[in-house]
Amino acid sequence: CVENGGRCSLRRRGLDDDDAFALASSLADADSDTSLARVCVGMDLADNDIGIAGVRAIAEALRLGTSRAVVAVSVAGNPGGETHPHKTPSVDARILHGCCAANLLRNAGEGEALKSIGDRALGDEGAEEVARYLSEERGYSHRHRAIGFQHNDIGPRGARALAEALAGLPNLDEVAMYSNRIGVEGAKWLAKWTVTKCRTLRVLDLGGNGVGDAGCIALAEAIVGHPSMEELHLDHNSIGIDGATGLLGAMQMTEDSRKGRGLRRVWLHGNDGVPEELNARVHAIARRNAGAAGEILEQIPRDDLAALEAWEDDVAMEAEGEAVKAGGGSLPGGFKETSTLFANRVAAAAAAAYRRWFPDHAANTRGTAVIAAIVAHERDASSPFDAPGHGDRLRVLSLGSGTKFMPREVAAAAAAGGARRWESVVHDSHAEVLARRAFLRMCYREILDIARETSTYKVAGAAAPWRLLEPAGHAGGFRMRPGITLHLYVSTAPCGSCSMPAMAGGASNRAFPSFAMRDVDDVPWNELWSGVAARHEAGVFAPSKPATTVKGAAGRGERAPAPGVVFARLRDAEKVPGVTLSCSDKISRWQALGIQGAMLSHLVPTPLAFSTVVVGRKFNPDRLRLGTCCALRGFASSAAALRVHLPAHCAALGTTVKLEGSAGAGERIERSHSNRADAGDGDESLTWARGDGTRSRHDGRTGGPVGGGGAGAAGS
User: Fold this and answer.
1) How many degrees, rounded to 5, is the angle at CA 151 between CA 246 and CA 266?
2) How far apart are CA 167 and CA 156, in angstroms?
């Protein structure tokens, strides 16, 4: 445990109940210097021979409170940890999971609690353990403002225990309990206890719980005149006309009485029994409530480009200073100017734009956010040197922040609504994809502006705004201006191949064999732009047939090559609602076919590609190269046959510049802003493109506007 940061792996060691009793005894003994209670934070006991008594003993040891640092214990694959034939967690395993979840909440700050106990297979028994902690240990639980119980197989009994416990939390702001099975009875208990008695509750997410009409009506009655409730998720709940009518009536009563805040965002999609007309009336009241509260609906005004360029000039030196402070050289001389300095400059430019356009997100983000930016580097045409301090400039072209994508059931519902409905939603809201979508918006806007200028009289001497594109001439469409290169910044390694664990020869790492090579892109600045393809060809091994990965969580027995993705056949990964390629695979495709995509390629025929990919957290240069450009080396022969461009290599760079503010992962923060999107977690996603006067936001889980009604998301 000491050597592995408190985590102990005893998987497949032939352990039985006697061994489990010994472990439980050590966990219960907080006084001994050699006790597990002093050092252990997690144990992997999977695939042993521990029975029900052994699992129960470990759970009882955690219940004593002497091992409050233990937040995860796996007993899967043990006779006492699973019930057959479906291999679901046993009752004692669920109690054990609940004890670990309670420990996690004890140790979590206010800002982290929303995500801390989702996907832990709690069931009713585990939920009751968490409820016991919330009710009996007020010294810890009173501080919780936002708690998430999503994807935990919680039924009506567990929902009742949690509802009663949550009602006693004095500062509760948000409860996420989506994708469980609480049903009608669970919804009634939550309405009776949590909603009615907790007057600070602002957000309640019960999507995908089968609450039905009766559950919806109970919740509707509880929100009438509620002083704080403003957001309610009831999507995919088998609600029909009766339930939706009851909700509409409750919202009308609150609006007419002018008592209570009134719901401003309501999720009702996925309930096939609710007519569109009734759905529209619910959303109309929500929009009026939001308007009365001064909330701005989805509108993206044009920015003053002259003012934007003035701001870019003002922050340029500040960003350069931030890059130097993070390490990698000095401007224009001093230490050796390496690729690290350039990576830091790209990240610092992205950080400055992030703080300007997503200010509340930057100040209040909870946990670890994922930010992506597309940055243009322009060399000074009058300078023979492509190096810092020689007039080169960095400009941020687009930003994206998000970690969600549409689940299969939501995507299937959107696809069933027809082509117009399908095209109006954002299917993938991971940060890299959102930054690329915003980049396309900027390109279309530039093309439109150029076309307008060439068809109208222009005042002589009028200063032209900075642009990425220019006319190619002779009916050749448009092209990127000479001297400009594009660079992708991501605050953490893209999901998929770029995040593959470095497991030598393991079956779960069949996409990439073992490799241990020097960082071929760690070169002096003046060598960074030239010879990148030659460096990669000579120094990087790539498999001939890289595996395809799609976003999603692995089921039991399914191989997960990297967190948040699973393997898939290519034919099953394209044009299937709810199946989305990993970000690594998408970047690979952009490098081969062009960032601009099929439609824009008619106007910008030459493929645009990234010259570098800059990564903050989880940077591994080999995995990054293999996941973005080098895995496509076997594509060359096919490219010649299809008469398409060869994939462009991009240098893999790491940065030491951090975008996160003081509210980093696991730290406590005060929630000073009431907007979920700008608070940095939840389902909302943010985008911005150069030329936008403000950021755009949408719901990453549904792909539509926040609240489920109103204009389509600008990122769609």
Assistant:
1) 30
2) 16
